[in-house]
Design brief:
It is a single chain. The protein is built from four helices and six strands; from the N terminus they run H-H-E-E-E-E-E-H-H-E. By secondary structure, the protein is of the alpha+beta class. The protein has one domain. Strand 4 and strand 5 form a beta hairpin. It starts with 5 loop residues before the first helix and ends with a strand. Bound molecules: fe (ii) ion (FE2). The site of fe (ii) ion has 4 residues, from loops. It comes from Thioploca ingrica. This is Metallophosphoesterase.
Length: 143
């Protein structure tokens, strides 16, 4: 919903088409309501991540049917938001094919950017950006 990755923030390769054109206006409205603690939007071909602005965590959810083939479970109580992201159970061949399909595109095509060119290092950087283990869980304290 809101620009999250560097490419979404700079609109490289039209990444801004994946976010609200009026994200700032929406955030202005939401932050006026202290009961709003989080938003969930997706899917994106990124493992779960969030940006925290004011008192709101803006989560971007992973795709379940294409790379990274993940879903997220949230636990929310008065003190915190906890999330854990899991790989969809499927044949390993399906997972590998999904990954290879994602890597097969050139630098000017989603989900690549100039920072993740179609090279061995670019592939690793793209995988790190999209689906690193660090994106699989987290905990946010609530005010
Ligand atoms: Fe998609």
């Amino acid at each position: 919903m809101v620009p999250n990755t560097p490419a979404e923030q700079t609109s490289e390769n039209d990444f801004d088409k994946f976010v609200l054109y009026n994200a700032d206006a929406v955030k202005t409205i939401l932050k006026q309501h202290p009961q709003v603690i989080m938003t969930l939007s997706g899917h994106r071909h990124l493992s779960t991540r969030y940006l925290e602005e004011d008192h709101i965590a803006y989560f971007t959810m992973a795709s379940t049917v294409t790379w990274p083939l993940r879903y997220t479970v949230f636990e929310v109580d008065k003190k915190q938001i906890t999330y854990n992201t899991y790989d969809i159970r499927c044949d390993p061949k399906v997972r590998e094919e999904a990954k290879q399909n994602m890597l097969a595109v050139d630098t000017k095509t989603f989900p690549r950017t100039q920072a993740t060119p179609n090279t061995p290092q670019g592939n690793q950087d793209l995988l790190d950006l999209i689906s690193s283990e660090s994106t699989k869980s987290g905990k946010l304290s609530l005010p």
